Amino acid sequence: MGADVVSEQTMRKSLAELAAECHELAVKRGKYPIDWTPEVGMGDISGELFELMAAHVYEVACGPDDHLRQLAVNEAGDALAALLSVTHQMGIDPDEALAGAIRRNRARVPREHGGEREP
Questions:
Q1: 119: buried, middle or exposed (CB in 10 Å: 19+, 13-18, 0-12)?
Q2: Partner of 17 for a Cys bridge, out of 13, 55, 60, 88, CB 3.0 to 4.6 A?
Q3: Rounded-to-integer distance, Cα 26 and Cα 79, Å
Q4: Using CA atoms, how far apart are residues 91 and 109, in angstroms rounded to an integer?
Q5: Would you place residue 1 in the very low, low, confident or very high pLDDT band (cuts 50, 70, 90)?
């Protein structure tokens, strides 16, 4: 299956479906121990965010480089997968959570910048 087909199929899934798949794959890979808890997963998120930050620092320090860009893209994907997996395990609907965050942030944007907040 080509990358374009996989991307097209993935884009049709909701965040909740992607979260379930991320968690299932992590369990199948043995990433989570039998006594896995959301707290363990949050540690994993923290580690993935650190790796993303490190990839970004290398990219900034070394300048434009396709390999370093791909490393940052991979680490961003790993961080998102870890976050989606934890939300799935906690029973949080990530579609709902993200929509709520967008609503809250939209309400914080001043009207003069296209938001809903009065000056």
A1: exposed
A2: 13
A3: 13
A4: 30
A5: very low
Q: Which residues pair with 110 in a beta bridge?
A: 117
> Half-sphere exposure of 41 toward its Cβ, with a 13 Å CA cutoff?
23
DSSP reduced 3-state for 7: helix
Q: Find how far residue 87's CA is from the centre of its chain.
A: 10
d(CA 119, CA 112): 8
Average pLDDT over residues 50-76: 94
Predicted TM-score (pTM) of this structure: 0.78
Amino acid sitting at position 59: E
Q: How far apart are CA 90 and CA 45, in angstroms?
A: 14
Instruction: List, in order, residues 6 or more apart from 38 with CB less than 8 Å away.
Output: 86, 89, 90
| Structure token digits, residue 55 | 């990839």
